[in-house]
Amino acid sequence: MVPHLEWIKILSGLVTSNSLRAPLLTELTTVQQAMSNVNHSYEDLGVLLNEKISELESMLSKMQNIQEESASMMQWLQKMDKTASDWEAAPTDSEAVKAQVEQHKLFETELKQSANKVQELKDKVTELLEKNPDSPEALKWRQTLDKIGTSQ
Q1: Does 2 map to a domain?
Q2: What is the pTM of this model?
Q3: CA distance 68 to 132
Q4: Residues 145, 120: contact at Cβ < 8 Å?
């Protein structure tokens, strides 16, 4: 059995001989180029992954904002429905009529002010559905659109 140092000497001698040196250098260069290509591919993959992560984080943030807006809008719509349903059908007292007219005016003003918000929310939810029709949240978004549409 040849000791390790002997093997190193034998291999060193082979590498230094001109007949083996050129093919080994060519093979080494080929391996180095392949490694360089692999490294570039991994770097490119890393860039793509970071872009995708950024895109997904942006989408998640947008979805969370829309969900918050939707929940707020649904609460507002429920409040408006309750307000309208609580009005007396036809007050007989002139003061009650005047008070109800004022309530109606305030109600109408609030509705007009929120009409753009409702439309913006509908547009955002519709955009989410168009971009992500297979999302697990899609059914919930459709229900939100239905609720907003029937409450207007």
Answers
A1: no
A2: 0.57
A3: 18
A4: no
